[in-house]
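task queued by scheduler; priority normal; single chain, no ligands, no partner chains; default sampling; output format set to structure tokens
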Amino acid sequence: MNEEDDIDKILLSVLQSQCEDDSDCICAICETGGELICCDGKCSRSFHPKCIGLKDSDVPDDQQFICSDCINCVHRCFSCKEFEFEDVLVKCGENSCGKFYHNKVCATI
């Protein structure tokens, strides 16, 4: 391991400790932090409202938010980044993880 790997692990640990729940701490679209809305669907991803076309006033305060991918049962393979219908992908077995993978990817992990 090199110094960059150590720094990445420390940063990841800090980000994970700052999360309030099991949702991602970075936006699934632009991959930066900030004020995020968390999907309550299967993916558990987080988004900046503007990255998914919402205005701050459109963000539900105490209501459940389900992203369009979860509504449409279409997810992106975390490894190859291709979109597929949910029934073609395998969801990670970790309870708090919302990542999806193709079967062929799972065979190589």
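post-processing summary
- Confidence is low (pLDDT under 50) at residues 10-20.
- Helices lie at 3-18, 68-72, 103-106.
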